[in-house]
Amino acid sequence: TALAEAELEYNPSHRSTAVTARLRLTRLPEPLGEHTLEEVFALVWTTTPWTLPLTRAICFNPHLQYSLCTLDSSACTYIVASELVDSLHNKLNKTITTLATFSGSCLNEASYQHPCWPEEELPFLPGDHVNVTKGTGLAHCAPAHGPDDFLIALKHNLA
Questions:
Q1: DSSP 8-class letter at 158
Q2: Whole-model pTM?
Q3: Which alpha helices (H) appear in 13-109, and where do they start and end?
Q4: Are 85 and 96 in contact (CB under 8 A)?
Q5: In principle, which of 22, 102, 114, 159 could form an S-S bond with 41, CB 3.0–4.6 Å?
Q6: Which terms are listed as keywords in the entry (predicted)?
Q7: How confident is the model at residue 10 (pLDDT cuts 50, 70, 90)?
Q8: Using an 8 Å Cβ cutoff, are 45 and 135 in contact?
């Protein structure tokens, strides 16, 4: 909660663990249909992996460019911010091939499968807090676990 967040004192030398998770898309943006292989995943990066079961959306920045990519010779395709493709290559040590580049605003049309409850389809939502300073340019939104996520949930009436 906001109150608990304000009462916490953080150890400045603590190093948080981060993960990159893949979340399967259930509805693709129109411009991507012709470029996809078997499955399409959004790659989200988080320093709070324990909040992934509570995700209610994936946030993107409508002002960024995104790329649809393959990793090595995988039959799957992945969405990541175009500016972070090289960073992802360095992190994963995999060959990345870009199949298409598109505006972030196209992700308004997308939806994805909840990581724990596959029958639940969740939206992609715009968020100006999403940036390319680190991660993948996509952020999972767990409204009970962060101020930006909470505001996105309020704005879009997420349960």
A1: -
A2: 0.84
A3: 85-92
A4: yes
A5: 22
A6: Aminoacyl-tRNA synthetase, ATP-binding, Ligase, Nucleotide-binding, Protein biosynthesis
A7: low
A8: yes
Chain segment 21-34, per-residue pLDDT in tens: 999 999 887 777 66
Q: Where are the alpha helices (DSSP H) in the chain?
A: 2-7, 85-92, 147-156
Q: Which residues contact 72 (CB under 8 A, 6 or more apart)?
A: 94, 95
Per-residue CA distances from 23 to 65, 96, 147 (Å): 19, 18, 22
What does the block give as tokens for 21?
Answer: 């998770």
The edge-to-edge listing of strands for the beta sheet with 96-103 is 96-103, 65-71, 77-81, 40-46, 19-27, 111-113, 121-126, 57-60, 138-141
Please choose, from the candidates 34, 91, 92, the residue with its C-alpha nearest in 3D space to the C-alpha of residue 68. Answer: 34
Rounded CA gap, 46 and 61, in Å?
Answer: 16
Opening angle at CA 77, ends 71 and 79, nearest 5 = 95
What are the pLDDT digits (tens) for 117-152? Answer: 989 999 999 998 999 998 899 999 999 888 988 999
Give the separation between CA 143 and CA 101, rounded to whole angstroms.
Answer: 29
As beta bridge partners, residue 41 has: 24, 78
How many angstroms separate the CA atoms of 122 and 127, rounded? Answer: 15
